[in-house]
Amino acid sequence: METSAYAIVHFFPGGTKDQYEASVAAAHPGEGQRPPGQIFHAAGPSDGGWRVIAIHESKESWESFRDSTLMPLLQKGVEGGFTTMPEATEIPLHNLLM
Predict the structure, then answer these.
(1) Would you call 53 helix, strand, or coil by DSSP?
(2) Dihedral, CA atoms, 51, 46, 13, 82, nearest 10 degrees?
């Protein structure tokens, strides 16, 4: 079952829960809310840092959020947020069960 959904896995080396909380508060429209087009969001500690997994409705939805919101925020810097740019893996999804 082919889908147009698109997954993004970000790894922030040395990242912490507090940095994640500050960054997600700045990038998302409100507490417990996802950006338009994002259908899944999960995050947690990972060996040596912090990992964020997001699924968007489409690659275009991801690119819109990335280019208009996420990257400008990360490049400018978020007070208390992540201090490095993430290592990114992008995955066009073949199947998505929810």
Answers:
(1) strand
(2) 50
